[in-house]
Specification:
about 290 residues, alpha+beta, seven-stranded mixed sheet, four-stranded antiparallel sheet, 9 helices, about 25% helix, binds zinc ion
């Protein structure tokens, strides 16, 4: 595939692309309905649209969120190499590292995958996790003149079930949390999270009951508002989706919580909540919490 064919191939894979100004990161509003790319968050462009957009030199954006498309954006090569080294010890992550569509950026690498669990954009150190928005596709030219090039050129987006399938738990515990959410336990201290990830701590016995007796759901929120006189029910904005009005409920009596916007398919306990906030599997959440509470 030559760079010019990539927008078409990506569209054929069921993923939306949008026109971005040449050597720029901003959408080309002059080519978009109402100067906005919003429509392509929920509608695919046609091949005709692409012919029109790309008959002059343009960059293009690949829209995250389509078919669960999610992109790990490594800010620099050093971080990407640390990740590669870590994946060699983790079969699921290694599969992604070896097979996923990957693109070099001006300084780092984009790794494309799909997830069945929606989320909000996240940042952990030098890694951006893009569930929404768009990333420049291969063939685009960064404002500095660097061309985005494919590192793994097969358009394959492996399906992951949680971020801990592809990133070390020791790193995910350091994710920047949304507004209104705090960390009731300190993240495991110590050296470099990548080094800590190479020798993970085992799960202690009796972990689940120890966690539940120590850690309460309300400990995670800075602005819970009571909605019942007996102090049982509370509401706050949901940390799992871009929530404009409080959709997240907490039952402090039974220590369960959930979201009215259907972010979760069943009520969550404190371990489920910690897992979702950090993109961990339940087992990994228990391992980290048991060693922290
Ligand atoms: Zn929600």
């Amino acid at each position: 595939m030559t760079p010019q064919t990539y927008p078409y191939e990506i569209l054929n894979a069921g993923i939306a692309v949008i026109p971005v100004k040449y050597k720029d990161k901003r959408p080309d509003g002059s080519l978009l309905p109402q100067h906005s790319w919003d429509i392509y968050k929920t509608t695919l462009p046609s091949k005709k649209d692409l012919n029109h957009w790309f008959n002059t030199p343009h960059n293009y954006g690949v829209v995250a969120g389509w078919h669960g498309l999610m992109v790990l954006d490594f800010d620099d090569l050093d971080e990407y190499i640390k990740w590669q080294l870590w994946t060699s010890k983790n079969p699921k992550a290694n599969f992604v590292a070896r097979n996923a569509f990957q693109v070099t950026t001006s300084r780092g690498v984009h790794v494309y995958m799909r997830t069945s669990i929606p989320g909000t954009n996240k940042k952990i150190g030098k890694i951006d996790i893009k569930y929404r928005g768009y990333v420049l596709g291969p063939g685009s030219i960064h404002p500095t003149g660097v061309e985005y090039k494919t590192l793994k050129s097969v358009l394959f987006f492996p399906l992951i079930s949680s971020l801990s399938d592809v990133l070390p738990t020791e790193l995910l515990t350091q994710v920047v949390l949304p507004e209104g959410v705090k960390r009731p336990i300190s993240s495991p201290q110590g050296s470099d999270p990548w080094e800590a990830a190479m020798t993970p701590q085992p799960v202690a016995k009796g972990a689940v009951s120890k966690i539940k007796s120590t850690l309460k759901i309300e400990d995670f929120f800075t602005n819970l508002r009571p909605t019942s006189k007996d102090g049982r029910w509370h509401m706050t904005t949901c940390p799992l989706h871009d929530d404009n009005h409080p959709s997240f409920w907490v039952d402090v009596k039974n220590q369960v919580c959930g979201c009215h916007a259907h972010c979760v398919d069943k009520p969550m306990d404190v371990i489920d909540l910690y897992a979702r906030l950090h993109g961990l599997s339940n087992g990994e959440a228990i391992r980290i919490l048991a060693n922290s509470v």
